[in-house]
Amino acid sequence: MLKLVIQAFFGAEKISNPAILSMIGDFNFLYFSGVLFLISVVIIILVSYKTNPPDQQKIHGLTFSTIDHEVIRSSWNTKDVVATIIILGLVATLYIYFSFWI
User: Which residues contact 7 (CB under 8 A, 6 or more apart)?
Assistant: First the structure.
């Protein structure tokens, strides 16, 4: 929101002083989203390194490495497998159909 206000007041050369606000206003939003992504990644990494890891009982079944694959595999039935094959077939058919129209 702050960038939008700065862009409205300083981006269209209405006011060019201070120059830093004009530069922020002229900064493309696509580049700005990339910068925000990198800032978010750095914050996530720093917080991960600064905090203690949770005990295994708290995250059991939450992350991919702690999932019990045998329990998941045993919950599948024929209807699930057939529905998955049909959906994958439809997606592949539509992808192939529309890829040759361009």
Answer: 24, 25, 26
